[in-house]
Each structure stands twice: as structure tokens, then as C-alpha cells.
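User: Can you write out an input/output pair for a complex, sequences first and structure second?

Assistant: Here is one pair. Inputs:
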Amino acid sequence: SAVISQKPSRDICQRGTSLTIQCQVDSQVTMMFWYRQQPGQSLTLIATANQGSEATYESGFVIDKFPISRPNLTFSTLTVSNMSPEDSSIYLCSVQPDRKLAGNTIYFGEGSWLTVV
Amino acid sequence: DQQVKQNSPSLSVQEGRISILNCDYTNSMFDYFLWYKKYPAEGPTFLISISSIKDKNEDGRFTVFLNKSAKHLSLHIVPSQPGDSAVYFCAAARNSGNTPLVFGKGTRLSVIA
């Protein structure tokens, strides 16, 4: 399994500001993802963080709003830019150690709870 | 368009009884399915998975059943324990992985002592 550390675990943010969430993994992993869980909703994939290249964003999510970095195989950041109350959510980093999921799994960090006021 | 559906937002079960959590999917390309458990203020933790080449996978008290023709899977917990009280998410993927997981909205299980 992989041990994932996310920071901050919780924050209250002012409208219009930006916040960067960090994700550190204790081992090198092939795939890293960022998810969001809004209140009462399912876990929704924001993007796949690609090492050494631009992230791959899902429909409805754009780089200007959610810039992502992945400088190496153990670390990634997600920035939530120009926040509004609608961005209040849990943001989760997840990793998939190997490219093939079968016989493997995806692990999640504990999440970063953001409240935008 | 929700590809993975958990139609029961909540479920209450007596301790010692069986808990059955259901999940339906619409995309016939999904071939790998997982269940995650989530406690409040924690990230989801992996519980059990099943490949589409199987129809059942068992791990201790947890068994997942897959009915491909009905595009339906279920998680059985026997016997249920109070510590099982959590939100359970069903997830699916294509191509045995290398594609992101698609999650359902979750079912909150309450096991009553």
C-alpha cells in the first residue's frame, strides 16, 4: 500500500483567494489523481497529474481554475484558484502504484476540507 | 449522466445481520469494480474489488457479487458490526485500469447494536 500525506487537512478561505494543496506519497507511483467530493455528491475526478507534463483534466475542469503540478513521482500539488463558495469541498489526492488497476488498487489521502467564505 | 449509481443513500442494519449494498452501472466497457469505505474526516479506504471475469470475490466478512448481464454488483457484509458504519462507495474502471475510477454517490451504512 501507499501512505499519502495531504496538507492542509482543513482550511477556511476567503472568496477570491487561491489555495494550494500538497500531496506527498511515501513511494514512487505511476498515477496520481485529484478528486473532489462536494457535499452530498460522489467523488468526482478533477484531473490526472502527469509527471513532467501538463495534467489531463476531466470535462468541466480547467487548468486556469485548478492548476496542477507534478514535479516527480512522489509529489503533486493542486491549486484552487479564485475561490468561491461553490468550491467548498473535500479535495482528495489519490495514487495508483502501477498502471494496470487489476490486481492493484487506488489509494486515497485523508483529504483537504476547504470552506470558502 | 451518472455511469455508476448507488440508488440507496442510506441503509440501517442490526448488528450480526447481513448488510447488502447495491450498485448499478451503465457503461458496458467497465471491467473492474471496487468498493471503498469512508469514515467521516478520513479519505476513502479500499475494501474489495472484482474483475469482470469473475462473478464473486470474497474477503473475510466481505463478498462482492457481479452480475454482468444486469450491470449490477453488490457488497455483502456478514455479520455486520458497528464498526462497519460508514459511507460505502462503488467504483468502476475500464481496460482493467489505466483509466480513472468512476464513483457512485455512496451509501451510508448504519449498523445498530
